[in-house]
Amino acid sequence: MKKIYLLLLFIFCINLSAEAPNLNYIPADTALFSGGLEPFPWKNSLKILNFKDFELTYDTPFVHVFNKRLEEEQTGIADTGYFTQYNVGTSLVYRIPLQNETLFHQFVQELEKQTETTGRVKSLEGVSYTIYPLFDEFEFIVTSDKENAILVFRPKDAAPEELKIAFGIEKPVKSLDQQYLEALAKEYHFDKRAFGFIDHAKLFQKFNRAYPDLATQAEREDFSLLFNLIPRTVFGATKLDFDKGLSDTIICLEMKDQRLIKLLAGLQGNLPQHLFDSSAKIAIGFGIDSDQIVPAYKKLKQIIEETGPFSEMPPELSPEVLQIVNMISGFQGISLAAFDADPQNSDMIVTISTENPS
């Protein structure tokens, strides 16, 4: 009987580790992760996301149109699944679950005709992929592996080995730890379907190794110091209501140094209470005590000097910045709250907070 229990426990543990299959493709040293530990309802999310309004511009119209047409029905993209973004070396990789691989490639071919673009078709160990120009030094790659569309943004001179991991031809030596992501989601109360992080130090190290001339020795030391103070940015949804088209999200720049935390707390301005009203469909605010900017800069410089040398930090704020600070003296914050999902037909409240409204 004990053997049966042990066997059931073993199977249960295997199922737990396989809970997020997307992690198998992600290197443990990724500097970026955006995705989830549970399937994300892509089709329902389009009630919140509107790709047609995204005005990202690229040197090539193909990539621009590709982004804007992702929400259409006939793309082959699955209604739900593990939508994941991460990096392999200096390459940025998107894995998008597919419902119909043939339909996805027909969608790509249609975009080529629409934008009069012809990609370069190449093959890597039996995997066919298409390269499209992006910027002067970057390229956009499209391929699939039956279950997922794989999109890669990478420098043209990136290491060829990166594509083997990006395409899934080779698995990472060590994959991103699921417990690490579980702890992150728990700490910030993220919805497990949509959250992520950026590790600043790892990101800099990857590009620094690939491009040693990217920064001088003094600049590298400055960045190392900075990233020790601000190691990570985390982000994610704390609430997703697709039926109502609502999403509450958090973006947090993590700091471990208590002196910095206290300094930033002193810069806190004022945001009106209606900004946190649950009936507001869109709520955006920026609060800062403008009269504390100059003292905070002096204190920041002191913290930096106590931590280590920082070669690029000026002793004082520039005259131009000081002039702006003086102009907005007393400013405490600005905010916008919209009470309808359609901005064109919505009641809005715009608030400017100051110490002396007159």
Outline of the structure:
With 358 residues, the protein is α+β, with helices and mostly antiparallel strands.
Mean pLDDT: 83
Distance between the termini: 80 Å
User: How many E strands?
Assistant: 13
Q: Number of helical runs?
A: 11
Sheet having the most strands: 10 strands, antiparallel
Which regions are unreliable across 5 or more consecutive residues at pLDDT < 50? 1-18, 51-58
Can you tell me about this structure?
With 358 residues, the protein is of the alpha+beta class. The protein has helices spanning 2-17, 42-45, 61-68, 101-115, 161-166, 178-188, 200-210, 217-229, 258-265, 293-307, 319-327; strands spanning 32-35, 84-88, 91-97, 120-124, 127-133, 138-144, 148-155, 195-199, 232-241, 246-254, 282-287, 331-338, 348-354. The chain has a ten-stranded antiparallel sheet. A hairpin with a 2-residue loop joins strand 2 and strand 3 (91-97). Helix 3 packs across helix 4 and helix 7 runs antiparallel to helix 8 (217-229). The radius of gyration is 24 Å and the shape is globular. The chain starts with a helix and ends with a strand. Residues 1-18 and 51-58 have low confidence and may be disordered.
Highlighted features:
358 residues; alpha+beta; ten-stranded antiparallel beta sheet; 11 helices; 13 strands; globular; disordered N terminus
